[in-house]
Design a protein that fits this description.
Oligomer: heterodimer
CATH class of the domain at 144-564 in chain B: Alpha Beta
Shape of chain B: globular
Strand content of chain B: 15-25%
Structural class of chain A: alpha/beta
Radius of gyration of chain A: 29 Å
Strand order of the largest sheet of chain A: 3-2-7-15-16-17-18
Low-confidence stretches of chain A: 1-113, 608-647, 649-674
CATH superfamily of the domain at 165-584 in chain A: Metal-dependent hydrolases
Radius of gyration of chain B: 28 Å
GO molecular function (chain B): hydrolase activity, acting on carbon-nitrogen (but not peptide) bonds, in cyclic amides
CATH superfamily of the domain at 144-564 in chain B: Metal-dependent hydrolases
Largest sheet of chain B: 9 strands, mixed
Largest sheet of chain A: 7 strands, mixed
Number of strands of chain A: 18
Shape of chain A: globular
CATH architecture of the domain at 165-584 in chain A: Alpha-Beta Barrel
Low-confidence stretches of chain B: 1-92, 593-614, 616-623, 627-641, 644-652
Family (chain B): Belongs to the metallo-dependent hydrolases superfamily. Hydantoinase/dihydropyrimidinase family.
Biased composition (Polar residues) (chain B): 614-623
Organism (chain B): Esox lucius
Helix content of chain A: 25-40%
Distance between the termini of chain B: 53 Å
CATH class of the domain at 165-584 in chain A: Alpha Beta
Number of helices of chain B: 23
Structural class of chain B: alpha/beta
Domain Amidohydrolase-related (chain B): 167-532
Number of helices of chain A: 23
CATH architecture of the domain at 144-564 in chain B: Alpha-Beta Barrel
CATH topology of the domain at 165-584 in chain A: TIM Barrel
Helix content of chain B: 25-40%
Strand content of chain A: 5-15%
Chain lengths: 674, 652
């Protein structure tokens, strides 16, 4: 919202580019989108070229950029939770302001040459438009975009001719440290983020999975510590709520307000472990909404799965195919439907992680058509492969595919999901990356329920989306950027710092070669896990150069990462993209009662009746251990009903007309009441 | 159930006329429907009359068939009417000829006379030869339809201990007045009560008071091992084949998904029909407390706390469970468009699911909850609530007409205004239930047939035949055919009547259809072969004349598909050599045993993280493997340190 305020100022200056960084979600309609209406379309071209070409202007524009830079940091500082934001990413705003203090870029800035880059000749692709421009990066931030940029000497030039320059991918669902059965994934923060960078993803959001009952803040600190030490790219954290109780409220509040976490995952599956009941979900959704965070759900009906698992094991099915058989698609669909219903009741934005089946995606699409604030995230595995491999004769291969919800055996699922992704019914792609070595998976060799769940996908994500959706003509390059990066940044309030190539944004940039073809394989991938579930898949599109925090981490096929260089990126509550609608709805949704006179007719006497029932209500209570009081209170001595005394609305005239003189408990015909 | 099987298999002994309809089951309509292709249409008229005649002249099998059936049910109290009838002298008194009507079944309509004797239909056809002294009921060209079957009534369901004002006598009297000649009532045991005891209590009360034939559903208040034994007895000895489970009423009747799964599996094995009260009880409880805390205590809080999404969600979940278990699911009280649509979609995908809209949802809407008159607003309180969307009745009628919904119930459960007033300061205490048993047939005619949505055959199907098929009463009930029970209604499509509590049979003061005009109504009603209602002469019912009709398990209409699917859907594992690679040593397997049996409870206590017992691990890397003799194994053997992270990509 803060960025909005900047718009008028920008307009005076007449430069198109100054708007790029600051304009919020819908520039596509306004400037240069190919379906935009006439005036814009005509103006645009001339304006564009003007501003790019006139070199005398570019210096001026540069000053403006700096102004804007100021505003940028203002943006952060006038928002409510500044302190933590600037504290956690102190490098970023402070350096930015020192830079903008200088009037020009004299060549005497000799330090840290490696931090300055110019990317030349590429086609810059954002989610709203594509254009040819050079990009100048300094101190990990994009400083200038345009043609014929004036830059200091000695800057490293990255050649992007013929390639596309896209914002680095954001992978919003990884579990690089989440232990299962006490085993840590084979690829931890270091290996995982390394693979992410190799595949063109420059930021991840990892799931913090505390032990059920353990402190969330404790787990958060643990993950932060690991992430700070091991991560090679920027990262942020989701918090999983593994067991809900009222005491967690303070922890959630502090996570949102002080720790920069604005998304929480709730499990509807994993019975007796992580699973939450509908009531608990409703409570959590209400709290999450009040805190301005986003509720994510792992949507599967744990009760049914639990029963089916028992049944399959009884049948003697112990191999990985049992996993698919006991996690049928319907069970996922049902849970998605239920989660949406509950979220609707609580008026909470909902994000479905790991959309794995056609019917689940359909439910999301339908709910969106009805106006629900719900988002769906297919993952690399559901977009790139199908679940027929669970029946592979090779146990190790079959086990490698095990994850929840399972990869769907229906081979048309990837096509379908990529179509929904293209038309906007699904919004974000992630990887769900959580890899376990074959030895770890083999813990479940005699019982599929013990196989640790998770597949790879962090590295292959962009390529798979490109291959399945862009190369086949389903989506264009702008939508590609949207689903791999921009939408995620908007949803989780990282925008426009991440997810966009604009002046002032972080220099997380990927130079993408859409023509290169390669074959995915475990022998060539960056992860340490032995089996790649995409083994043998041919994909078009590959990152040529990957720039993270302004540093080149991938060039000429060589990875050059620094362990621990990743920064934690805090996220503020109330992401605009999500909460604008929620806020408006909560203002509208107040239910109101009907003001009517008190009922003053006869009231049936309840006390006499209970005697006829042999079992007294209170004796039923122990049937429900751990339950609260019964819904309707049956303690008849507590009854607050009375027929005598003055009524609140004694002064209302219409009441007297309604008074009925009738013996209490008698069966009187009071049809005349109407 | 086996008896049942055997009987059906003896179809060749049955009269020609009966043989077809029984066995062809749900598809008859197509063969005789009015839209069939030319040959069928031309044939059928001649053929059928032939058949009828043959049946009449031919063997006496129809009688023996029904005798058989009566004998099967011999353990039940033999109805007085029937026993009287069996005495030779009174035959003529009980003989009844319905003349000059158009007999409408669910598959076809024909002009024919119907001759009734001993409470059974003896003959259907033109120019019947009958004894001279039989009573003749002139239909004067009106429709002669099988009596309605109301599959959802609660005439003895207590709320906070008080039973509804309409008991079995008043309720069945009202039913007969409206053209319904059989009800299936819900036995509602309180949680912890014995199902059998509750069943007997209901049966005793009904035997004393019922004026028409009845049967019983049993509701399951909770799920445990004791219930299972009782269910077996109920199905196999007591003639109950339908049970209701609840997804709502948290902390009272509600079951968790696990319990539902178990209940579905068990009931399917027994061959029963699972009925579901579909609402998400957890969310309702939350919404109720929210709305009460907002200070809304009037009846409008009822629909506000039970929005239609919660109904649709639960329907969706119930269907999912039914699909997983491969069990037929019957959704009682379909009250909203979304719930009905959910059922429709599931049926398109092949689920065995049935939906039952009720009189209230078909004839009125939930806008009355906001009435200024508390008594009026409270009269509409039922669960799931009436949808405030005024287009709901139309939509439901359309789905009924096209077969997406199958059965019309009434959910008649009438509480007096003073009983409703128990909840005058708290809408959650208002007893739930509306009237509708008397108005049911009339409104379906008025809103669907008279509007041209539905034809008269489909009208018979949704009010009578479909429910008879689903609950295994067919062809004894739900059809006018030789050998069927003589539950017959002469229906006048042009009669107009204004519904008002003044002329109704029910004792409830506030009729929720008050003032509505309704076309179509019964001119005469014949129950068990006796004329109980005739226009101009009023109702002549006899308290306690109703018989309990036991129902066999495994109704064909429902279970044929289920059985086939059971056979087809066998699951097989993959036979593969044993994995012999390295196995990670699981250091500690934290066992979480959630103390409460149901995950639906909300544990408010903070549970400490369990201690890791490192000695519990039972994974081992050593020792001989089961498949040491399998040859392919050697090729796969990998020498790798246990627990080490070794690249064994060659495995793939």
């Amino acid at each position: 919202m803060a960025e909005r305020k900047l718009l008028p100022r920008d307009n005076d200056e007449g430069s198109l580019l100054s708007k790029l960084g600051t304009d919020s979600p819908k520039p596509r309609v306004k400037f240069g989108g190919m379906f935009c209406n006439v005036e814009g379309a005509f103006e645009n071209k001339t304006l564009n070229f003007d501003s790019y070409n006139s070199s005398p202007q570019s210096a001026r524009r540069h000053v403006k950029t700096k102004n804007e830079e100021k505003c940028w940091s203002d943006t952060f500082s006038d928002a409510d939770s500044v302190s933590n934001f600037s504290a956690a990413s102190e490098r970023f705003p402070r350096q930015a302001s020192t830079c903008s203090g200088r009037s020009t870029f004299p060549g005497l800035l000799s330090f840290k040459l490696a931090d300055r880059l110019i990317i030349k000749g590429g086609k810059v692709v954002n989610d709203d438009q594509s254009f040819y421009a050079d990009i100048y990066v300094e101190d990990g931030i994009i400083k200038q975009i345009g043609e014929n940029l004036i830059v200091p000497g000695g800057v490293k030039t990255v050649d992007a001719y013929g390639h596309m320059v896209i914002p680095g991918g954001i992978d919003v669902n990884t579990s690089l440290q989440a232990p299962q059965l006490g085993m840590c994934p084979a690829d931890d923060f270091y290996h995982g983020t390394r693979a992410a960078l190799a595949g063109g993803t420059t930021m991840i959001i990892d799931h913090v999975v505390p032990e059920p009952g353990a402190s969330l803040l404790g787990a958060y600190d643990q993950w932060r510590d690991l992430g700070d030490r091991r991560s090679c790219c920027d990262y942020s954290l989701h918090m999983d709520i593994t067991r809900w109780h009222d005491g967690l409220f303070e922890e959630l509040e502090s996570l949102v307000k002080d720790k920069g976490v604005n998304s929480f995952l709730i499990f509807m599956s994993y019975k007796d472990k992580f699973q939450s009941s509908d009531s608990q979900m409703y409570e959590m959704f209400s709290i999450i909404r009040d805190l301005g965070a986003i509720a994510q759900v792992h949507a599967e009906n744990g009760d049914i799965i639990d029963e089916e698992q028992k049944r399959l094991l009884e049948l003697g099915i112990t191999g990985p195919e049992g996993h698919v058989l006991c996690h049928p698609e319907e069970v996922e669909t049902e849970a998605v439907y239920r989660a949406i219903t509950i979220a609707k009741q609580a008026n909470c934005p909902l994000y479905i992680t790991k959309v794995m089946s056609k019917s689940a995606a359909d439910v999301i699409a339908k709910a969106r058509k009805k106006g629900m604030v719900v988002y769906g995230e297919p993952i690399t595995a559901s977009l790139g492969t199908d679940g027929s491999h669970h029946w592979s004769k090779n146990w190790a291969k079959a086990a490698a595919f095990v994850m929840s919800p399972p990869i769907n055996p229906d081979p048309s699922t990837p096509e379908y999901l990529s179509s929904l992704l293209s038309c906007g019914d699904l919004q974000v792609t992630a990887s769900g990356n959580s890899t376990f070595s074959t030895a770890q998976k083999a813990v479940g060799k005699d019982n599929f329920t013990l196989i640790p769940e998770g597949t790879n996908g962090i590295e292959e994500r962009l390529a798979v989306v490109w291959e399945k959706a862009v190369a086949t003509g389903k989506m264009d390059e702008n939508e590609f950027v949207a689903v791999t990066s921009t939408n995620a940044a908007k949803l989780f309030n990282l925008y426009p710092r991440k997810g966009r190539i604009a002046v002032g944004s972080d220099a997380d940039i990927v130079i993408w070669n859409p023509k290169e073809t390669r074959t995915l394989s475990a022998t060539t991938h960056t992860l340490t896990v032995e089996i790649n579930i995409f083994e043998g898949m041919e994909v078009r599109g590959a990152p040529v150069v990957v720039i993270s925090q302004g540093k080149i981490v991938l060039e000429d096929g060589k990875l050059d990462v620094t362990e621990g260089s990743g920064r934690f990126v805090p996220r503020k509550a109330y992401p605009d993209y999500v909460y604008k609608r929620i806020k408006a709805r909560s203002r509208m949704a107040d239910a109101r009662g009907v003001p009517r006179g008190n009922y003053d007719g006869p009231v049936h006497d309840v006390i006499s009746m209970t005697k006829s029932v042999p079992a007294t209500p209170t004796s039923r209570m122990p049937q429900f251990p751990g339950k609260g009081p019964l819904g309707p209170a049956r303690n008849l001595h507590q009854s607050g009903f009375t027929l005598s005394g003055t009524q609140i609305d004694d002064h209302i005239p219409r009441r007297s007309a309604q008074r009925i003189v009738a013996p209490p408990g008698g069966r009187t015909n009071i049809t005349t009441l109407s | 159930m086996s008896d049942c099987r055997r009987q059906w298999n003896r179809e060749d002994e049955l009269p020609v006329y009966l043989a077809g309809p029984i066995t062809t089951g749900p598809n008859q309509r197509k063969s005789y429907g009015m839209f069939t292709s030319a040959e069928g249409a031309c044939d059928s008229t001649t053929k059928d009359y032939d058949n009828c005649a043959a049946g009449r002249r031919g063997t006496r099998t129809p009688r023996s068939f029904s005798r058989d059936r009566l004998l099967d049910y011999a353990e039940n109290p033999v109805p007085e009417a029937a026993s009287e009838a069996s005495e030779q002298g009174k035959v003529c008194i009980n003989g009844l000829l319905i003349r000059g009507g158009r007999v409408v079944n669910d598959d076809r309509s024909e002009f024919a006379d119907v001759y009734v004797e001993h409470g059974l239909i003896k003959d259907v056809g033109v120019n019947l030869t009958v004894p001279d002294d039989v009573r003749v009921l002139e239909a004067n060209g009106a429709m002669v339809i099988p009596g309605g079957i109301d599959v959802n009534t609660c005439l003895l369901k207590p709320h906070l201990g008080c039973p509804p004002v309409d008991d079995f006598f008043l309720g069945t009297k009202a039913a007969l007045a409206g053209g319904t000649t059989m009800i299936i009532d819900h036995v509602v045991p309180q949680p912890g009560d014995s199902l059998l005891e509750a069943f007997e209590r209901w049966q005793a009360s009904a035997d004393r008071k019922c004026c028409c034939d009845y049967s019983l559903h049993v509701d399951l208040p909770n799920w445990n091992a004791g219930v299972q034994d009782e269910l077996e007895v109920l199905v196999q000895e007591k003639g109950i084949n339908s049970f209701q489970v609840y997804m709502a009423y948290k902390d009272m009747f509600q079951m968790t998904d696990s319990q539902l799964y178990e209940a579905f599996s068990f009931l399917k094995d027994l061959g029963a029909v699972v009925m579901v009260h579909a609402e998400n009880g957890d969310l309702i409880a939350q919404e109720q407390s929210k709305i009460l805390s907002m200070g809304i205590t009037g009846p409008e809080g009822h629909p506000l706390s039970r929005p239609e999404e919660l109904e649709a969600e639960a329907v969706f979940r119930a269907i999912t469970l039914g699909n997983r278990v491969n069990c037929p699911v019957y959704i009682t009280k379909v009250m909203s468009k979304t719930a009905a649509d959910t059922i429709t979609q599931a049926r398109r995908k092949g689920s065995v699911v049935f939906g039952e809209p009720i009189t209230a949802s078909l004839a009125t809407d939930g806008s009355h909850y906001w009435s200024k008159n508390w008594a009026k607003a409270a009269a509409y309180v039922t669960s799931p609530p009436l949808s405030p969307d005024p287009t709901t009745p139309d939509h439901l009628h359309s789905l009924l007409a096209c077969g997406d919904l199958q059965v019309v119930g009434s959910a008649h459960c009438a509480y007096s205004t003073s009983q409703k007033a128990i909840g005058k300061d708290n809408f959650t205490l208002i007893p739930e239930g509306t009237n509708g048993v008397e108005e049911r047939m009339g409104f379906v005619w008025d809103k669907a047939v008279a509007m041209g949505k539905m034809d008269e055959n489909q009208f018979v199907a949704v009010t009578s035949t479909n429910s008879a098929k689903i609950f295994n009463l067919y062809p004894r009930k739900g059809r006018i055919a030789v050998g069927s029970d003589a539950d017959i209604v002469i229906w006048d499509p042009d009669r107009t009547k204004t519904i008002t509590s003044k002329i109704q049979q029910s004792a409830v003061e506030y009729n929720i259809f008050e003032g509505m005009e309704c076309r179509g109504g019964p001119v005469a009603v014949v129950s068990q072969g006796r004329v109980v209602y005739e226009e101009g002469e009023g109702l002549q019912v006899q308290q306690g004349s109703g018989r309990f009709i036991p129902r066999q398990a495994f109704p064909d209409h429902v279970y044929q598909r289920i059985r086939t699917r059971n056979k087809v859907k066998g699951r097989q594992g993959v036979t593969r050599g044993m994995y012999d690679g390295p196995v990670y040593d699981v250091p500690a397997m934290p066992k979480y045993i959630t103390p409460s049996p149901s995950a639906k409870t909300s544990p408010t206590s903070h549970q400490p993280p369990p201690i890791r017992n490192l000695h519990q691990s039972n994974f081992s890397l050593s020792g001989a493997q089961l498949d040491d003799n399998v040859p392919r194994r050697s090729g796969h053997r990998i020498v790798a340190p246990p627990g080490g992270r070794s690249n064994i990509t060659s495995l793939g």
